[in-house]
Amino acid sequence: MESKGISKLDLKRRNRKQILNVMREFGPISRVDIAAELQLTRAAVTIITNDMIEQGVLMELGEAPVDEHNLKKGRRKILIEVNSNYKFVLGAMINEHNISVGLSNLVGEVLDKDFMELTDEHDQQDIIAFIARACTRMLKNSGLTEKQVLGLGVGIVPSRWEQLRADIHDDTPDFSKLRYILELEVNVPVHCGNAIALYAMANLDHRKGGHQNQLLLYSGSQYNLAVISDNALVRRCVVRTDNVERVVINPGGAKAEGFPDGSVRAELSLPAIMEGIRARFGENSTPILYQLCNGNIDEITIEKANMAFSEGDPAVSEWLEQKLHLLAHLLHNMMLTQFADYAVLQNYHFCDKSKKLLHDYMAEISGEEMADHVVYSPLDAERSFLAGCVYATEEMFYAQGGLI
Question: What three-state secondary structure class fits 312?
């Protein structure tokens, strides 16, 4: 006879997952409030949470604070929450120009971190060796064994996939080769994924509650877009995050081989922006940038261009203001078409003047409220490993019901 329905183990895992997700959204909460939120009986919630407390997954914090405006008779509620140090996670992000590796607990509190700049001379072996050494050192320095670590979450930007021998099957990147090597080196489970998708997951604030729609734009040698819908990553964002490069934002505008005229790739990618600055470089047209670079066009960097922009260098200012206006239009269109509540900008090399101008352009095009909903990711290059930690926590803790 075929077995039908959900097994007891699956039901237990599902209930535990629901409880953990409620805690992630609301923070410390009582069993009574969990039961009300999930429409489960108090007895069922008590049995499940007591089991999780005994296992060490959850911990009791004591009685809830007194609400002077809503005093009630009887015993006060006992608050419980996730035991943030029940297990630990490792994270690594392989970006275009650097690698960030770190160790955190289940709520993203950093215990240790490491960082390395990447050059054209670094190959796959160098990247793997650095991650393995960093993870091994961090566990040793923190006095942790492999059993105390859920695993390692690794994000790889699309421009690095070929170097790390990723295969694409059914529109899904397959990092099996990289995962296999890292598991041998680090001796913990490893999950690998598209760095853009991981950044989107890491920037989702569960404490805002409800069903959130959010998009993340990543700027680099490629432009990438990932979308969160109802708190979940949209499937198409697992692999083809660079499709946004083909979006036309300036009809008949700049050209880029293989892309429509006026596309995001041709207008807003970092190489396109830098090419435009170099084309305008001169002692008379860009006097401040010219001085910063000692008259040498090869010394131009985005950091120096930002300094010149901040000081009002004429040709630099005119060029970057055009690009910021086009970016505002792109954000407006993307937020509307994706029904996004927020847009998160990742890896943008903006000075304060750029941020203010972008906000002003967005306010003109979309209104002040939408402009205020364009935010910048707090995950800079050296802390980007936290996106890998979030991934490991999601896949190996929350998705598993805190491990049964």
Answer: coil
